[in-house]
Amino acid sequence: MGRKRRPIRLIGLIGLTCPTRQSDHRNNELILAVARRNQVLSRPLPGARHALRGGSALSVVEGIIGAPLKSYYLGLVILIGILCARFAVGRWRLMRFRRLWAQAQESMRDNNWVAAEAALRRCARMMPIAAPVHRLLGGVLARRGKLSEAEKYIRLGAELEPKNPAGFLDLGFLLTSQGPGRVEQAIDAFATAIACAPNLREMLAKEPRLEALRRHERFQKLVDAKR
What gap in Å lies between CA 218 and CA 227, rounded to an integer? Predict the structure, then answer.
């Protein structure tokens, strides 16, 4: 009887122990998978491992975005430097222009037309869009007998300020002084000046320097106060 019961016990033992070993094996695999996942998630970022050793949150940020941040600040510093340099150069040019303009005015008061021309030429190079500089330089050149160059500068000054009658008056007087061949152009300049300021008609009608133009029919119609 004992011999017949022993295999039953062995079979029962095997049948009970096999499922237990299989479950333990699965549990072990699950534990290992979870451990591997936690190990991956707990790894530091590539650029922050060294910063984490220092124990500073700012070091971590600099380790990640340090290079772009430094480039941004460097570009900002360069831009500020350029703006400051341009401001300094512009202020220096303005101060120098004022000194040259004062020298030109003083030279004109002393009838030193050579010095006045030199100072005004430098002013014109520094401020090429300053209409009064070109007109005054043209007047000085006319004083020195350089009529063609004077006309160029006075005309440029008038064109830079198309709503200012002063430039066209200067051009009209200069053209009138060059003889009968420039009368029509002089009247055109006076007509533009009157279009900018109609009250100039009476002044031009009484201007002694325009005595030669008063016999011109077109000029008479232009300065007629009734128009």
Answer: 13
What is the average per-residue pLDDT within 81-93?
80
SS (H, E, C) the chain: CHHHHHHHHHHHHHHHHHHHHHHHHHHHHHHHHHHHHHHHHCCCCCCCHHHHHHCCHHHHHHHHHHHHHHHHHHHHHHHHHHHHHHHHHHHHHHHHHHHHHHHHHHHHHCCCHHHHHHHHHHHHHHCCCCHHHHHHHHHHHHHCCCHHHHHHHHHHHHHHCCCCHHHHHHHHHHHHCCCHHHHHHHHHHHHHHHHHCCCHHHHHHHCHHHHHHHHCHHHHHHHCCCC
> The whole model's pTM is what?
0.62
Write down the CATH number for the domain with range 128-227.
1.25.40.10
